[in-house]
């Protein structure tokens, strides 16, 4: 009886252990699919242009990132420019669409959320591994016509679920519940149109849903440059 009990415990424990190991294996395969840990670590900054469409309205933008630290995004809307910046643990914005041209400090929750975007697009799981964020494999499921792994990652700004293509090992989607200024809502992203640039394979199109936006948005990235020279002054809040 004792021997049978030990065998039963072992049979129950082995799948649980394998399940936990599989989460890390999926992340490692994703990192390899992007281009490898060494190539990712070599990128200290990145810049790219954005083409966006929201509810039939076309917008353009440009983002400059110092990986893990700073992010500046300038978006042109109806002849006006909206600037959003995070630099370390602080941030600011200029948004004439909200009635002002003077810079305003970003609330702490928005700084956290924006800082989570200060990395290479499509490399979220590499960041999770490097920063040792808790990761849980929820399971395998269908997304559109793809078999995907659902990974739950606990990030500083909140919990996010990442969906990894079981065949290509690339990210195909992300879902997260965020809270901004006391209101919560779901952020959803679908990644597509992967291209290889300087040895890194990243998505160049995204379909986004965000409670802060008036409707779903399609974004296309172009002119992606790794390790451009970045003047730190662009992140300084004007006086």
Task: Give an account of the 3D structure.
The chain is α+β, with helices and mostly antiparallel strands. It has one domain: Clam (outer membrane lipoprotein receptor (LolB), chain A), CATH 2.50.20.10. It has 4 helices and 13 strands. It has helices spanning 2-34, 37-41, 108-115, 124-130, and strands spanning 45-54, 57-66, 70-77, 80-87, 90-94, 104-105, 135-143, 146-155, 158-165, 171-180, 183-197, 200-209, 217-226. A 13-stranded antiparallel beta sheet has the order 6-5-4-3-2-1-13-12-11-10-9-8-7, covered by helices on one side. A hairpin with a 2-residue loop joins strand 8 and strand 9. The longest helix is centred in the first third of the chain and has 33 residues, at 2-34. The protein is globular.
TL;DR?
This protein is an alpha+beta fold and 239 residues long. The chain has helices at 2-34, 37-41, 108-115, 124-130, and strands at 45-54, 57-66, 70-77, 80-87, 90-94, 104-105, 135-143, 146-155, 158-165, 171-180, 183-197, 200-209, 217-226.
Tell me how many strands there are.
13
Would you identify the CATH architecture? Clam
The CATH topology: outer membrane lipoprotein receptor (LolB), chain A
Q: Which strand order spans the largest sheet, edge to edge or round the barrel?
A: 6-5-4-3-2-1-13-12-11-10-9-8-7
The average pLDDT score comes to: 87
Element-by-element helix/strand order: HHEEEEEEHHEEEEEEE
């Amino acid at each position: 009886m004792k021997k049978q009990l030990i065998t039963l415990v072992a049979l129950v424990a082995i799948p649980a252990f394998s399940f936990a190991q599989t989460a890390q294996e999926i992340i490692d395969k994703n990192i390899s699919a992007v281009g490898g840990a060494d190539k990712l670590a070599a990128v200290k900054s990145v810049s790219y242009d954005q083409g966006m469409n929201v509810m039939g309205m076309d917008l353009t933008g440009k983002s400059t990132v110092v990986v893990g630290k700073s992010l500046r995004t300038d978006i042109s809307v109806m002849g006006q420019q909206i600037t959003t910046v995070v630099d370390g643990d602080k941030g600011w914005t200029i948004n004439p669409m909200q009635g002002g041209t003077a810079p305003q400090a970003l609330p702490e929750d928005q700084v956290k959320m924006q800082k989570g975007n200060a990395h290479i697009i499509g490399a979220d799981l590499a960041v999770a591994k490097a920063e040792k964020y808790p990761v849980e494999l929820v399971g395998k499921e269908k997304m559109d016509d793809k078999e995907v792994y659902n990974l739950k990652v606990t990030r500083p700004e909140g919990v996010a679920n990442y969906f990894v293509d079981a065949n290509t090992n690339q990210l195909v989607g992300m879902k997260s519940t965020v809270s901004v200024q006391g209101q919560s809502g779901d952020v959803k992203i679908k990644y597509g149109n992967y291209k290889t640039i300087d040895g890194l394979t990243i998505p160049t199109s995204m379909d986004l849903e965000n409670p802060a936006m008036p409707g779903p948005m399609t974004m296309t990235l172009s002119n992606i440059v790794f390790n451009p020279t970045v003047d730190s002054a662009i992140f300084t809040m004007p006086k």
